[in-house]
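Most newcomers find our protein records easier to grasp once they have seen one. Read left to right, the backbone structure tokens trace the chain's path through space. Nothing more is needed to start thinking about how sequence determines fold. An example says more than a description, so a record of this kind follows:
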Amino acid sequence: MAMSLSVPVDGEGFLVNRDDWTEELAQELAQEDEFEMTEQVMDFIREARAMYDNDGVVPPIRIFAKKQGVSTKELYGIFKKGPMKLICKWGGLPKPTGCV
């Protein structure tokens, strides 16, 4: 039951235009991936966006986890596959490079 998103995304579902991002859209994107958005996940997304705005890059998962006070294992527990990839996808950030 794919919803048609109201904004353009690339072949992997990442936003084409970062300025299109809203918290509502983040929920839509997560639903597309059959994921139930939680306040904790939204906090991770907000934090990743803030770090991206500050540093101009998507934070590596180890740095991100440390800054959030969680382990990478906990992040994988929440996101199952590729926590930073999903955080970036739902957060309207570029796809992370390197290990995801």
